Amino acid sequence: MALLDLSAAFDTIDHSILKRRSQMSFGLRGSALTWFESYLTNRQKTVVTGQYRSSPVTLRFGVPQGSMLGPVLFSLYAQPLTDIFDTHGFCYRIYADDS
């Protein structure tokens, strides 16, 4: 059995790799692909602590946490890993949590 815990997995997803996998492995094209791209691009984050608020930073990696799409997008991104497990006959379970 394979058990794997990926730290900050949702934060490290490369958008260009996710886009390529969505196209090549899952056939995502046209308006669906455009929608996913718009969902991931031009997102910003700030840090607020007490009275201090940082300047916004544009996110180039990661998927939005707390959304219903976060685990789905992570699953698309991690698909090659499950292919390796399948090829070698591993028993595995995958759980994606964005907390």
Verbal overview:
- The chain has 99 residues and is mostly helical.
- Helix content is 40%, strand content 8%.
- The chain contains three helices and four strands, in the order ααββββα.
- The protein has helices spanning 15-24, 30-40, 69-87; strands at residues 44-45, 48-49, 52-53, 57-58.
- The strands form two sheets. A two-stranded antiparallel sheet has the order 1-4.
- Helix 1 (15-24) packs antiparallel against helix 2.
- GO terms for molecular function: RNA-directed DNA polymerase activity.
- Residues 1-99 form the Reverse transcriptase domain.
**How far apart lie the N and C ends?**
24 Å
Total strands = 4
Order of adjacent strands in the largest pleated sheet: 1-4
Gyration radius over CA: 16 Å
- Structural class determined from secondary elements: mainly alpha
The biggest sheet, with number of strands, parallel, antiparallel or mixed sense and barrel status, is: 2 strands, antiparallel
What's the overall geometry?
flat
Number of helices: 3
Q: What pattern of helices and strands is seen along the backbone?
A: HHEEEEH
How much is the average pLDDT?
Answer: 88
Keywords: Nucleotidyltransferase, RNA-directed DNA polymerase, Transferase
Organism: Elysia marginata
Pfam families: RVT_1 (PF00078)
GO molecular function: RNA-directed DNA polymerase activity
